[in-house]
Amino acid sequence: LGRKEDSTASENQLVFITGCDSGLGFSFALHAYKLGYTVVAGCLQANGAGSTELLQLCPQRLHVLQLDVTSDVSVQTAAETVQEMLAHNPHYELRALINNAGVMIFGEFEWLTEQHILKQIDVNLLGAMRTTKSFSSMLRKYKGRVIAISSHCALAALPGLAVYGATKAGLLAWCDGLRVEQAKYGVPVISFIPGSFFQHTSILAKQQEYAKEMEEAMTPVDCKFFGDYFRRYNEYLSGMPTPRKPLPLQEEKLYSMLEHALLSKYPCPHYECATPRYRYYHFLFKTSPTWLRDYLVQRFMQMPEF
User: Fold this and answer.
1) pTM of the complete model
2) Coil/strand/helix, residue 122
3) Catalytic residue (choose from 92, 164, 255, 281)
4) Has 164 been annotated as catalytic?
5) What Gene3D superfamilies does this protein map onto (predicted)?
6) pLDDT tens digits for 201-222?
C-alpha cells in the first residue's frame, strides 16, 4: 500500500467500533488504541469477557458501550453518548466509524429458520446501515470515515453460508452507493475484507444451539431425509475450535491495512486481506466455467458429503 498519511493517530481523534466482544472488533479496538486513538468499543455484552479484557489492557483512552446494532434505541443511545463526548471535549473529533458487528450461522438455506435468516440480515447489513445513519451528522461535521467489514463470502457465495454471503454482498453494494453519495461531504466510505478468522472469534459459539433450533423446526419428512447428513454436518462444525477468551488476531498485513484505512488522507475504497490459498481459489472461482467453479467451491469448503 502506498502510504499518504495526513497525520499520526491522536488521542483527540475518536474511533467507534461495533462488535468488539471478540475477534476482529476486539483486535481492531486494541490496535487503534495502540496507535494512539481514543477508542469507543461497542460490545453486545458490556460486562462480558471481551469488554473486561479491553478495559484491563487499555485503561486510559478506551471506553466500552453496550451496543446491540439490531436495536434502534441502543444504537441511538450510543450515538448520543459519542456526541456528548465530542461536545464536552471540543478538541476531539470523530475519525472513524468501523461497522464490524456480525453474525454467521452455518447451515444449508433449507435448514435455517426464518429467525436465523432475519438475524443475519439485521446484524450484518441493517446493523451497519442503522449505525451509520445515527452517526451521519457527526461524520459529516468531522469528515470522519465509514469502514464496513465485509467478507470473502461477498465475492464468492459459499454453500452453508448463502444467507451470510448475501448480507455481506449487500454490504459491499451499499458501500459502493454510499461512497459516491458521501464523497461530496468529505466522508470516505471504505469496504474492508479481512480474510478468514472465524476460528479465532466467538462467531460460531452458538452454532450448536442454532443447529438444535434447525432440527426442531424440521418437518418429520425433512428430518428423515436429512437425518444422517445433518448430523455429520453439525458434528464437523462442532469440531471447529472457538477461543475460551478473547485474543487479538496475529496478522500483520491486516493491521497494516487498518492503519492505512484510518491514517491515509486518501484511503482506498476497498481493502482485501487474503491468504495465498484464498487468492488462488477465488481467482479460480471467478475465471472457471460454472460447473468447474461449483466443484472447486465444494473442494474449498471441505464439508461432509450428502
Assistant:
1) 0.93
2) helix
3) 164
4) yes
5) NAD(P)-binding Rossmann-like Domain (3.40.50.720)
6) 677 888 999 999 999 999 999 9
